[in-house]
Amino acid sequence: MRFSEVWRTALRSILKNKRRSILTMLGIVIGIASVVAILAIGDGFSNWVTKSITNNKAGKVETQIMYSANDTANTSSQPFNERDLMLVGQVTGVAKVKQTSSDDDYAQISLAVKNKTKSVLVHYTAGKSSSVLVGRRLRAVDNQIGNQVAVIDADLASSLYGSQANALHHGVEVDGQLYEIVGISKAVNDSVNFSAAMSGEIPANITIPRKVHQSYTQSQRTGDLLTLSLAKGSKASKVNEQVLHILKTQGSMHQQGDYQSNDPTAQADTFGKVLNAITYFVSAVAGISLFIAGIGVMNMMYISVAERTTEIGIRRAMGARQQDIRRQFLLESATLTILGGFVGYGLGVLLALAISALPIMPFHASFSFGGFALAFGVSTVVGLVFGVMPANAASRKDLIEIIR
Amino acid sequence: MLIELKAVNKYYQNGDQQFHVLQDINLKIDQGEFLSIMGPSGAGKTSLINLIGLIDRQYTGDYYFNGESYQQANDNVLARIRNRSVGFVFQNFKLIANNTILENVELPLLYGGLSKRAARPIVEQALVRVGLADSSHKLPSELSGGQQQRVAIARALVHQPKFIIADEPTGALDTKTSAEIMQIFRDLNQREGTTIVLVTHDPQVSLYGDRLIKILDGAIIADEPVKEGSHAIQ
């Protein structure tokens, strides 16, 4: 008997007992759907992480090593010499080393507000600041010509000068320099938005032109930063660890100061770990669901075999071999679970789309052929594994007993 | 010699008791014969035809089908022989309920390796032969008992087997329908030379054959030709 013919028989038998088939498929559907959804979200996440940490033009991951002296008197000496650069360059995973000066975009400073000291976040920008409620934004030209101006957030404005309007054209002191307040931005929310953090847009309390700030503080920081371009496939945290170890033991200034690393992937790693944990959990639940579903399939197949004893007898009398009967029931079981797998895949895709449509999700689910292949493969395997015993039982039925 | 049984015995274990189902059966059936086996229920008729029909291999003695013994053959060989050589007609028709008439009748052809497309015209032809043209897409439940048995006969002859085994083919049918069904067997045997082994406990039905075997308590007690004049109304 040809394969397509056996398959038609299997499909008809499944469709004939619709309710029973659907109930049996339910476990498969749930299991496959949850795995597909969590994989799609995980893929979406890792795509998004890769995109956001390789945002530079070369498309490579960059990490930074900072040096800070213990004693400020020593700042005149070079923090990194030629030998340091060579040592760092030899670490596996490092493609390129570049020495630069630190020009952090952000700094945490203390500010006296109504006799109290308050910690505020300062953002140094070379371009535009984000939108303002009152006054004007900072513009690129402020940075170029060195306007000593600032945009502060509504909360800070209120606590410094009573109201937003009052604060305009007054001064705010950053690192000992007074900046004129030209704009008031939206109040900074205390909770840091993860997606904003990853895109480098931390809402700051005070925003000032970078060049102006640098002109006052430049002397303190020269060449204290190494920017490492990583080779493809190397892990930033590992490379940083090795580089730090070398510098701390052999670096030219290791006795006069400390080396620190800045890993842009660290934050993503944390989120990735949480996501991994969720993936494992969902996979475990899905695994249990698939196992229970498999037992359900086995049960249904046993019932089907018992109900169709006469049919088996007829087929055997007409010349079906034991292997024909086995194949027929195996195919029926596999068809049932594959149908469940398809439905589950569809449901999983919908679920992933629904989850990535939630406003808190900074990324979109990503669907790959791998997810589809997994759904197809797993459901096939469940059908075959749990169908073997009923199919064997069907094929081994005694023809004399069942032909009566 | 199509079928040859030599000193065949069969025992059947039921708890502590052992039944001697078939006792020293010697039987020869030639190509083209129409053989009726008659006997009361429990006499061993069904055991005998299961054995002849290559369904049962639990016996002692020798059974040669076309000169060969299949007692030690594996399942695949046996299934192939059944598929090529034997056509079964059962008392309760034994049609697959959720398959159409076409699908029921084409089963032996499909298991013989034909494609559905190739089987189709052969099936239609077989249905015409039993007088059931144009009903290939009905389900068995839409047909009367007599019609269902016609379908079963079509299924039994569609692959041109060496012989047809009919186990009480009229047992579930009324007298008139029985006569129609038996006439089909008679025509098959006379016009096309199909070998038929018929089991019945109805003396009237047994008269359609050429040769009558009476069986009692597992032993053949009579083996005689049916007199020409005594054939039932044709």
Automatic annotation (TrEMBL), chain A:
Residues 284-398 form the ABC3 transporter permease C-terminal domain. Residues 21-243 form the MacB-like periplasmic core domain. The keyword Cell membrane applies. InterPro entries: ABC3_permease_C (IPR003838), MacB_PCD (IPR025857), Macrolide_Exporter_MacB (IPR050250). The chain crosses the membrane at residues 21-42, 277-298, 336-361, 367-389. Its main location: membrane. GO terms for cellular component: plasma membrane. It is found in: Cell membrane. GO terms for molecular function: transmembrane transporter activity. It is a multi-pass membrane protein. It comes from the Bacteria. Keywords: Cell membrane, Membrane, Transmembrane, Transmembrane helix. Belongs to the ABC-4 integral membrane protein family. This is Membrane subunit. The lineage of its organism: Bacteria, Bacillati, Bacillota, Bacilli, Lactobacillales.
Automatic annotation (TrEMBL), chain B:
Keywords: Amino-acid transport, ATP-binding, Nucleotide-binding, Transport. GO terms for molecular function: ATP binding; ATP hydrolysis activity; transmembrane transporter activity. It holds the Pfam family ABC_tran. GO terms for cellular component: membrane protein complex; plasma membrane. SMART domains: AAA (SM00382). InterPro entries: AAA+_ATPase, ABC_transporter-like_ATP-bd, ABC_transporter-like_CS, ABC_transpr_LolD-like, MacB-like_ATP-bd, P-loop_NTPase. The keyword Flavoprotein does not apply. The keyword ATP-binding applies. GO terms for biological process: amino acid transport. Residues 3-233 form the ABC transporter domain. This is Subunit of permease involved the starvation-induced killing process (ATP-binding protein).
